[in-house]
Amino acid sequence: MIVVDTNVIGYLFLSSDQSLLAEQALQKDIEWAAPILWRSEFRNVLTLYMRKNILNLEQARIIMDSALKLLKGREYQVPSTEVLRFASESKCYAYDCEFIAVATDLKVPLLTVDKQLLREFPSIAVSLSNFSK
Predict the structure, then answer these.
(1) Is the CB of residue 41 less than 8 Å from the CB of residue 75?
(2) Which pTM was predicted?
(3) Residue 25, pLDDT score
(4) Which of 4, 35, 132, 133 could share a disulfide with 8, CB 3.0–4.6 Å?
């Protein structure tokens, strides 16, 4: 099992230059986990794609349903005290620290492309490119 951030989820379901790496990561470990926050962040990404006329509502709904299916049973609530502790020990935003908190609690790595998370939490965060090799 690995924790993935919303960007990695997006790369899997939305075509980008990182999509192949996300697909390779899924082949390497199919048990992806995330804090429940990923849902709101991913809905925002899908909304942006709809507003730019890249996706229509039905396409966005299908993608969201597919992502929900992938993460079913592996979405986690995180204690605010843990999130705030990680935020206070770093320069990262609290919402980014939710992913760190889940990974720490599950004792698994966080797969991310976020440079600040990679820099601030090198023992927890793993880059998508390094993981997919």
Answers:
(1) no
(2) 0.95
(3) 97
(4) 4
Domains of the chain: total: 1
Residue 31 in tokens: 């048990």
Instruction: Give the CATH number for residue 30.
Output: 3.40.50.1010
> Distance (Å, rounded) from C-alpha 129 to C-alpha 120?
18
Inter-residue contact 60 to 46 (CB < 8 Å): yes
Starting at the earlier edge strand, list the strands of the sheet with 110-112: 75-76, 32-35, 2-4, 110-112, 125-127
Residue numbers of the domain that contains 37: 2-131
Q: Please give the structure tokens belonging to residue 64.
A: 């969201």
User: Which residue, among 73, 79, 72, has the nearest Cα to 94 in the 3D structure?
Assistant: 79
pLDDT of res. 102? 98
Tell me the C-alpha distance between 54 and 10, whole Å.
Answer: 14
pLDDT tens string 57-73: 999 999 999 999 999 99
